[in-house]
User: Fold Guanidinium exporter from Sphingopyxis italica.
Amino acid sequence: MAWIYLTIAGIFEVVWAFAMKQSDGFTRPGSTAITIVAMIVSFALLALAMRSLPLGTAYTIWTGIGAVGAFLVGIFILGEQANAMRIAAALLIVSGLILMKLSSPA
Assistant:
């Protein structure tokens, strides 16, 4: 169950990062509210996952999902550039996440 909590927490991290971008420096109330709620949900699920997962594993996976997810949202929703070096960097992050998961005892 911890891995499910952690995965959903990572997805909510992407949601709050996107909503924060849309809030335009917290000047748009709707996007600001989504940011705050998504942050709370993300942190709460991360805390639940950390009950049984090691800190290093849980935090690395959580931030990795957020980083790669935000990267993908940036490209596919916000129209940010996708060049070879940025894609290679994202693939390296995903590789690290896979290795972290495989090396986790939980």
Observations:
- Helices lie at 2-22, 29-49, 55-76, 84-102.
- Residues 79 and 90 are 16 Å apart (CA to CA).
